[in-house]
Amino acid sequence: MLEIGKYNTLKVLRLTPPGAFLGNAEGEEVLLPNKYVPKGIRVDEELEVFVYLDYEERLVATTIKPYTSLNQFAYLEVVDLSRAGAFMYWGLEKDLFVPFQEQVSKMRVGQSYLVYVYLDKSSGRLAASERINRFLKNEELSIEEGQEVDLIIASKSDLGFNVVVNEQHLGLVYFDDIYIAIETGDKIKGYIKKIRDDHKIDVTLRPMGYRNIIEPSAQLILDTIKKKGGILKLTDNSHPDEIKALLGMSKKNFKKTIGALYKQKLILLKEDGVYLNQ
Fold first, then answer.
1. Cα separations (Å) of 216 from 14, 126, 193, 224, 249?
2. pLDDT digits (tens, 9 = 90+) for 131-157
3. Which CATH superfamily does the domain covering 148-204 fall into?
């Protein structure tokens, strides 16, 4: 059947003045308006199109790729407001609707928010919700400790940042495990640090284990020294904030990495900084 809010591979049934009528094996049809019909397309050829409801609540297809799709998360900007809710731009002519009851706080035009796209059963329309936690399930986990995962930065908390893990679960990256600048909506890689008995998930932004931590950090330090002309103006007495600003790592990790590089005779340690061993 035609899947609203998703990409469908359909066959061209006939070409008409309004556009191309596309169909599937079940006999369902949808119009691809003329402005989206590829030049030279022929009957019986197949097209991958995105299907949704237009302004008049009619099923329509488009070859434009929206920023997100059904059952996915996206960081989108609010472009308009109405008495019923907010509208977000997601790459299509018809904006994505966010009902008031699906907003955590009153949305504002020009501001961006992390939302989840769902199908409203009562209207059959696509809509978005800022209440993302209710779409994340931790009862049954599909991950394990040490695994690399895809993260979406959700929101800041007192302990760190809440994150969406593999678009399925809710996790937390503690401030101590954050060594790069992150913001809501960022999509980055992470690693499962710990799965607690209550199925809460601790996430880190660095690979697990001493070997994995040292090697990428060592390369970063060596590259930075080269960029700085052979000397890095950091020492054991440097302030943690200075180290984090320059290298994006904690002072503890910096000292451990410097020690490993020194043992390998790749660097020289002097009073005014770290030198590349020529």
1. 56, 43, 18, 12, 11
2. 999 999 999 999 999 999 999 999 999
3. Nucleic acid-binding proteins (2.40.50.140)
